[in-house]
Known about the structure:
The complex is a heterodimer.
Chain A: E1 10-21, E2 28-39, E3 43-47, H1 54-61, E4 69-74, E5 77-78, H2 84-94, E6 95-98, H3 110-120, H4 127-139, H5 155-168, E7 173-177, H6 185-202, E8 206-210, H7 213-216, E9 221-226, E10 229-235, H8 239-252
Parallel strand pairs in A: 3-8, 3-9, 6-7, 7-8
Antiparallel strand pairs in A: 1-2, 1-4, 4-5, 9-10
Helix pairs in contact in A: 3-5, 4-5, 5-6
Chain B: H1 2-5, H2 8-39, H3 41-80, H4 82-90, H5 95-135, H6 151-168, H7 196-220, H8 226-243, H9 245-258, H10 264-273, H11 277-311, H12 316-357, H13 360-369, H14 373-411, H15 430-457
Helix pairs in contact in B: 2-3, 2-5, 2-6, 2-12, 3-6, 3-11, 3-12, 5-6, 7-8, 7-14, 8-14, 9-10, 9-11, 9-14, 10-14, 11-12, 11-14, 12-15, 14-15
Amino acid sequence: xxxxxxxxxxxxxxxxxxxxxxxxxxxxxxxxxxxxxxxxxxxxxxxxxxxxxxxxxxxxxxxxxxxxxxxxxxxxxxxxxxxxxxxxxxxxxxxxxxxxxxxxxxxxxxxxxxxxxxxxxxxxxxxxxxxxxxxxxxxxxxxxxxxxxxxxxxxxxxxxxxxxxxxxxxxxxxxxxxxxxxxxxxxxxxxxxxxxxxxxxxxxxxxxxxxxxxxxxxxxxxxxxxxxxxxxxxxxxxxxxxxxxxxxxxxxx
Amino acid sequence: xxxxxxxxxxxxxxxxxxxxxxxxxxxxxxxxxxxxxxxxxxxxxxxxxxxxxxxxxxxxxxxxxxxxxxxxxxxxxxxxxxxxxxxxxxxxxxxxxxxxxxxxxxxxxxxxxxxxxxxxxxxxxxxxxxxxxxxxxxxxxxxxxxxxxxxxxxxxxxxxxxxxxxxxxxxxxxxxxxxxxxxxxxxxxxxxxxxxxxxxxxxxxxxxxxxxxxxxxxxxxxxxxxxxxxxxxxxxxxxxxxxxxxxxxxxxxxxxxxxxxxxxxxxxxxxxxxxxxxxxxxxxxxxxxxxxxxxxxxxxxxxxxxxxxxxxxxxxxxxxxxxxxxxxxxxxxxxxxxxxxxxxxxxxxxxxxxxxxxxxxxxxxxxxxxxxxxxxxxxxxxxxxxxxxxxxxxxxxxxxxxxxxxxxxxxxxxxxxxxxxxxxxxxxxxxxxxxxxxxxxxxxxxxxxxxxxxxxxxxxxxxxxxx
Lengths: 253, 467
């Protein structure tokens, strides 16, 4: 019997992943032989300098891009060869996204943005899900803003709406792509604390791509990528420790 | 290069308007030449004046509609170039220089379009005349295709395109240099500034216009001169509708949007259709004008026909000759007005196309969140449908009201035995309504094909792009 990722306590897993762009002598390799499993309920940070392949890895794990070779699982579903239709459903039901530039739908108010994943699925949230959404809006301090449109909110508020949207369906995995990149440092810290507590309090699995050591210091686990390979896989680390390692990596390059 | 490619629709609109104007004048000239050769000069002077006036009215309508379309296209293009404009501002270009550059593009494109249009229009008129003369359906006569009058529509199109490009580029002034640095996602919801003057003018015109229309209908019950009051009232109140389009159209769009249901693609599409009220108003108003004019004319003629038939109850021979004359008049006039509707439709297709493409990131976001390709297609289609249906319904409603008022004020006093027909219900010309609705459906499909194809090609990864 084959071992399922869930048997290992994993929510997402990639094995011997490679991604190449172009062909022949002009080919560029973005990822080389990457194997990693993300543990259920953990807040994982993926770090690395620009061009290290961290974004490519996230795109592949989220079903937004396909690998050149290797295999990809979300939960116990192998998503390596899924078609557009299945990937769309997967993103709709089992993945949440938080983006650097917030990416709310400008024509919808806060509540409609948070409800969008349910609407897309053509269903109404259950009483339990509604209670969860209300709790989320309350925890994120958005209750008084539910009828506002994104352009009426500050950057930090918009990002909190995006977090509420990402958590609303209790997805298997939330992907956060530089979630503090467009925020001032105080607002950024608040957002990171919210993500960390979603993992600690609700057991939400989260993976965050960042190049900011302070952001990564909020995570349970920090994975470093350089030149398309995993070069270090550490537990919770302080910002200073992470910076030191990053600087050493730069010096070695 | 891409800057000029943005202007291709403006070229097309200017070309269409100029071709229409020149063709109409050429045909007027040829008809006058034929009538002069048949009946001598004295009679033809009156005919020429009449034909010239009719042609002038239709040309003014076409040029007016094309000016609205062009200013809307330019405004949309400017919105899409915000980043580039901000960058140029950042490195030291003044807003005014940039605006002048856009207006100059408008002048060049307008000039090129109207010259091309003039050639096409002349060729069309010459072709129609030669075919008609060869077949013997119109008598052969000497005519010239080089009247100085032809410069009028050409000049009018060049000037209005220039002016429209200037008006449409007003947004350049609002671009801040800092937008080159940050996220220049469009968040411009307050395009509708509180232009009180315009609102007051619209209200005054609306009240005056409706009052005159009512007065015209009442006077029309006694004397046919009521139609003059009605005509004035119609012009005033319709100008009010055009002036207040950004207030009138969004509620109609919302109402129509609701008809498409509560599913997410439909709901987002309905919201998209009103996200820039000013832009939606300009996108639809050209079509509203076209549909209103066609419907007004058709309803007037149809109501007129029914009144005439009533009045000539005892004259079967007269009744038989009324039908074809009215049918032919409706057909000719509808075609002439319909041309303006075509120009408006070109504008709508183009603006929708540009504005969908300016939403690449948002489309990527929806795909990332789980919109499938069909839902994206449905969203674009419903947005197009909401715009055309709203414009068509508004035009039909206004047209029926105006058409009825026109017929009533002109003919309320005419009737068998000099008693007058009194108040009658408007007669709706179903064939014309059918053609308008079918044209709207075709337009919806045409408007959504290109943006739909490009929208489904947007990869979900686009939502993650920092730009």
